[in-house]
Amino acid sequence: MIARLKGLLDEIGTDWVVIDVSGVGYLVYCPGRVIGNLPGVGQPVSMHIETHVREDHIHLYGFSTALERECFRMLTTVQGVGAKVGLAILGTLTVDELTTAIVAQDKAMLSRPDGVGPRLAARLMTELKDKILSLGGSFAPKPVTASAGEAGATGAVSAETGAAADAISALVNLGYGRAEAFGAVGRVTQEKGDNIGLNALIPAALKELGQ
Protein backbone atom coordinates (compact mmCIF):
# COMPACT_ATOMS: atom_id res chain seq x y z
CA MET A 1 0.00 0.00 0.00
CA ILE A 2 1.17 3.54 -0.74
CA ALA A 3 0.98 5.69 2.41
CA ARG A 4 2.96 8.74 1.33
CA LEU A 5 4.31 10.31 -1.84
CA LYS A 6 7.10 12.86 -2.16
CA GLY A 7 8.06 14.23 -5.55
CA LEU A 8 7.48 17.04 -8.03
CA LEU A 9 4.04 18.37 -8.91
CA ASP A 10 3.63 17.47 -12.58
CA GLU A 11 -0.03 18.32 -13.37
CA ILE A 12 -3.02 19.88 -11.58
CA GLY A 13 -6.66 19.11 -12.42
CA THR A 14 -9.97 20.10 -10.86
CA ASP A 15 -9.93 17.27 -8.32
CA TRP A 16 -6.65 15.49 -9.05
CA VAL A 17 -2.92 16.01 -9.38
CA VAL A 18 -0.06 14.05 -10.87
CA ILE A 19 3.04 13.69 -8.70
CA ASP A 20 6.28 12.73 -10.43
CA VAL A 21 8.28 10.42 -8.19
CA SER A 22 11.61 9.52 -9.84
CA GLY A 23 10.05 9.59 -13.29
CA VAL A 24 6.83 7.76 -12.38
CA GLY A 25 3.66 9.86 -12.43
CA TYR A 26 1.10 9.04 -9.74
CA LEU A 27 -2.48 10.21 -10.25
CA VAL A 28 -3.82 11.36 -6.88
CA TYR A 29 -7.38 12.55 -6.15
CA CYS A 30 -7.52 15.36 -3.58
CA PRO A 31 -9.99 17.64 -1.78
CA GLY A 32 -10.28 21.06 -3.38
CA ARG A 33 -8.83 22.66 -0.26
CA VAL A 34 -5.65 20.59 -0.64
CA ILE A 35 -5.29 21.42 -4.33
CA GLY A 36 -5.80 25.12 -3.62
CA ASN A 37 -2.88 25.12 -1.20
CA LEU A 38 -0.40 23.40 -3.51
CA PRO A 39 2.62 25.17 -5.01
CA GLY A 40 3.06 25.56 -8.75
CA VAL A 41 3.79 22.83 -11.28
CA GLY A 42 7.37 21.67 -11.02
CA GLN A 43 7.59 22.38 -7.29
CA PRO A 44 8.27 19.68 -4.67
CA VAL A 45 5.25 18.30 -2.82
CA SER A 46 4.59 15.68 -0.16
CA MET A 47 1.22 14.05 0.46
CA HIS A 48 -0.28 11.54 2.86
CA ILE A 49 -1.97 8.87 0.75
CA GLU A 50 -4.98 6.64 1.25
CA THR A 51 -4.90 3.72 -1.21
CA HIS A 52 -8.14 2.07 -2.33
CA VAL A 53 -7.74 -1.21 -4.18
CA ARG A 54 -10.65 -2.59 -6.14
CA GLU A 55 -10.99 -5.38 -8.71
CA ASP A 56 -10.95 -2.91 -11.60
CA HIS A 57 -8.76 -0.07 -10.30
CA ILE A 58 -6.36 1.30 -7.73
CA HIS A 59 -7.13 4.84 -6.61
CA LEU A 60 -4.88 7.13 -4.58
CA TYR A 61 -6.34 9.92 -2.43
CA GLY A 62 -4.01 12.64 -1.20
CA PHE A 63 -4.11 14.85 1.89
CA SER A 64 -1.95 17.55 3.42
CA THR A 65 -1.83 15.92 6.85
CA ALA A 66 -2.20 12.49 8.41
CA LEU A 67 -5.15 13.92 10.39
CA GLU A 68 -7.03 14.71 7.17
CA ARG A 69 -6.37 11.19 5.93
CA GLU A 70 -7.69 9.68 9.17
CA CYS A 71 -10.77 11.87 8.93
CA PHE A 72 -11.34 10.71 5.34
CA ARG A 73 -11.14 7.10 6.50
CA MET A 74 -13.66 7.77 9.23
CA LEU A 75 -16.05 9.58 6.88
CA THR A 76 -16.07 6.72 4.40
CA THR A 77 -17.25 4.29 7.09
CA VAL A 78 -20.60 6.12 7.06
CA GLN A 79 -23.20 4.63 4.74
CA GLY A 80 -23.65 6.93 1.76
CA VAL A 81 -20.21 8.51 2.00
CA GLY A 82 -18.01 7.22 -0.77
CA ALA A 83 -14.60 8.58 -1.70
CA LYS A 84 -16.07 11.37 -3.86
CA VAL A 85 -18.34 12.67 -1.09
CA GLY A 86 -15.57 12.28 1.48
CA LEU A 87 -13.29 14.46 -0.65
CA ALA A 88 -16.09 17.00 -1.11
CA ILE A 89 -16.62 17.23 2.66
CA LEU A 90 -12.92 17.79 3.36
CA GLY A 91 -12.74 20.21 0.45
CA THR A 92 -15.43 22.36 2.08
CA LEU A 93 -14.78 21.91 5.81
CA THR A 94 -11.54 21.62 7.74
CA VAL A 95 -11.24 18.76 10.22
CA ASP A 96 -11.88 21.21 13.08
CA GLU A 97 -14.93 22.69 11.33
CA LEU A 98 -16.30 19.21 10.68
CA THR A 99 -15.73 18.24 14.31
CA THR A 100 -17.46 21.38 15.56
CA ALA A 101 -20.41 20.83 13.23
CA ILE A 102 -20.86 17.25 14.43
CA VAL A 103 -20.57 17.91 18.16
CA ALA A 104 -22.79 20.98 17.79
CA GLN A 105 -25.29 18.94 15.71
CA ASP A 106 -25.25 21.64 13.02
CA LYS A 107 -27.07 19.99 10.12
CA ALA A 108 -26.94 23.14 7.97
CA MET A 109 -23.15 23.31 8.14
CA LEU A 110 -22.79 19.61 7.40
CA SER A 111 -25.05 20.01 4.35
CA ARG A 112 -22.76 22.56 2.72
CA PRO A 113 -20.51 20.13 0.79
CA ASP A 114 -21.72 18.84 -2.57
CA GLY A 115 -23.42 15.48 -2.25
CA VAL A 116 -24.45 15.91 1.38
CA GLY A 117 -28.18 16.37 1.82
CA PRO A 118 -30.16 16.64 5.07
CA ARG A 119 -30.48 12.85 5.46
CA LEU A 120 -26.77 12.21 5.04
CA ALA A 121 -25.94 15.15 7.32
CA ALA A 122 -28.16 13.59 9.98
CA ARG A 123 -26.43 10.24 9.51
CA LEU A 124 -23.01 11.88 9.91
CA MET A 125 -24.12 13.48 13.17
CA THR A 126 -25.51 10.21 14.50
CA GLU A 127 -22.73 7.85 13.46
CA LEU A 128 -19.72 10.09 14.13
CA LYS A 129 -20.73 12.03 17.24
CA ASP A 130 -18.97 9.50 19.50
CA LYS A 131 -16.02 8.94 17.15
CA ILE A 132 -14.98 12.29 15.70
CA LEU A 133 -13.20 13.52 18.84
CA SER A 134 -10.89 10.50 18.74
CA LEU A 135 -9.09 12.11 15.81
CA GLY A 136 -7.45 14.48 18.27
CA GLY A 137 -7.45 17.65 16.17
CA SER A 138 -6.80 21.11 17.60
CA PHE A 139 -10.50 21.20 18.47
CA ALA A 140 -10.45 18.97 21.53
CA PRO A 141 -13.48 19.67 23.72
CA LYS A 142 -14.19 17.69 26.86
CA PRO A 143 -17.51 15.87 27.36
CA VAL A 144 -20.09 17.52 29.57
CA THR A 145 -23.62 16.75 30.67
CA ALA A 146 -25.75 18.85 28.36
CA SER A 147 -28.98 20.56 29.20
CA ALA A 148 -32.20 19.59 27.47
CA GLY A 149 -31.57 22.16 24.74
CA GLU A 150 -28.11 20.73 24.05
CA ALA A 151 -28.86 17.01 24.53
CA GLY A 152 -26.29 14.82 22.89
CA ALA A 153 -23.71 17.57 22.42
CA THR A 154 -20.20 17.44 23.76
CA GLY A 155 -17.69 20.19 24.18
CA ALA A 156 -15.94 22.62 26.43
CA VAL A 157 -19.28 24.19 27.19
CA SER A 158 -20.74 23.93 30.67
CA ALA A 159 -24.46 23.32 30.53
CA GLU A 160 -25.04 22.70 34.22
CA THR A 161 -26.66 26.09 34.75
CA GLY A 162 -28.07 26.33 31.24
CA ALA A 163 -26.07 29.52 30.54
CA ALA A 164 -24.09 27.94 27.71
CA ALA A 165 -27.19 26.46 26.08
CA ASP A 166 -29.02 29.79 26.42
CA ALA A 167 -26.06 31.68 24.96
CA ILE A 168 -25.84 29.33 21.99
CA SER A 169 -29.59 29.69 21.41
CA ALA A 170 -29.32 33.49 21.58
CA LEU A 171 -26.48 33.58 19.06
CA VAL A 172 -28.37 31.28 16.68
CA ASN A 173 -31.38 33.61 16.97
CA LEU A 174 -29.07 36.48 16.01
CA GLY A 175 -28.31 34.67 12.76
CA TYR A 176 -25.10 32.79 13.57
CA GLY A 177 -24.71 29.16 12.55
CA ARG A 178 -25.09 26.61 15.31
CA ALA A 179 -21.53 25.31 14.99
CA GLU A 180 -20.19 28.87 14.88
CA ALA A 181 -22.09 29.78 18.06
CA PHE A 182 -21.09 26.52 19.76
CA GLY A 183 -17.42 27.16 19.04
CA ALA A 184 -17.49 30.75 20.29
CA VAL A 185 -19.23 29.84 23.54
CA GLY A 186 -16.85 26.93 24.02
CA ARG A 187 -13.78 29.15 23.61
CA VAL A 188 -15.14 31.69 26.11
CA THR A 189 -15.88 29.07 28.75
CA GLN A 190 -12.45 27.52 28.24
CA GLU A 191 -10.82 30.90 28.84
CA LYS A 192 -13.06 32.34 31.57
CA GLY A 193 -14.32 29.20 33.29
CA ASP A 194 -17.56 27.24 33.35
CA ASN A 195 -19.19 29.48 35.95
CA ILE A 196 -19.39 32.57 33.75
CA GLY A 197 -22.92 33.98 33.78
CA LEU A 198 -25.16 34.45 30.78
CA ASN A 199 -24.93 38.26 30.88
CA ALA A 200 -21.16 38.05 30.54
CA LEU A 201 -21.09 35.00 28.29
CA ILE A 202 -23.10 36.42 25.38
CA PRO A 203 -21.03 39.64 24.94
CA ALA A 204 -17.79 37.65 25.24
CA ALA A 205 -18.99 35.16 22.62
CA LEU A 206 -19.98 38.01 20.31
CA LYS A 207 -16.50 39.42 20.71
CA GLU A 208 -15.09 36.02 19.72
CA LEU A 209 -17.27 36.21 16.63
CA GLY A 210 -15.83 39.60 15.76
CA GLN A 211 -18.83 41.72 16.72
Instruction: State the separation between the terminal residues, measured CA to CA.
Output: 49 Å
Q: Unreliable runs, pLDDT <50, ≥5 residues?
A: 140-161
Largest sheet: 5 strands, mixed, barrel
Characterize the overall form: elongated
Number of strands: 5
Helix content range? 40-55%
Task: Specify the CATH class of the largest domain.
Answer: Mainly Alpha
Q: What would you call the structural class?
A: alpha+beta
Strand composition percent: 15-25%
CATH architecture of the largest domain: Orthogonal Bundle
Q: Order of strands across the widest beta sheet?
A: 1-2-3-5-4
Overview of this protein structure:
Helix 2 crosses helix 3 and helix 8 packs across helix 9 (198-208). The chain folds into three domains: 4-64, Nucleic acid-binding proteins (OB fold (Dihydrolipoamide Acetyltransferase, E2P)), CATH 2.40.50.140; 67-135, DNA polymerase, domain 1; 148-208, Helicase, Ruva Protein, domain 3, CATH 1.10.8. The chain has helices at 32-36, 66-75, 83-92, 95-103, 107-110, 118-128, 163-173, 178-192, 198-208; strands spanning 4-12, 16-21, 24-29, 44-53, 58-63. The protein is an alpha+beta fold. The model is unreliable at 140-161 (pLDDT under 50).
Give me a quick take on this structure.
Helices cover 41% and strands 18% of the residues.
How does the SSE layout of this entry go?
Elements: E1 4-12, E2 16-21, E3 24-29, H1 32-36, E4 44-53, E5 58-63, H2 66-75, H3 83-92, H4 95-103, H5 107-110, H6 118-128, H7 163-173, H8 178-192, H9 198-208
Parallel strand pairs: 3-5
Antiparallel strand pairs: 1-2, 1-4, 2-3, 4-5
Helix pairs in contact: 2-3, 4-8, 7-8, 7-9, 8-9
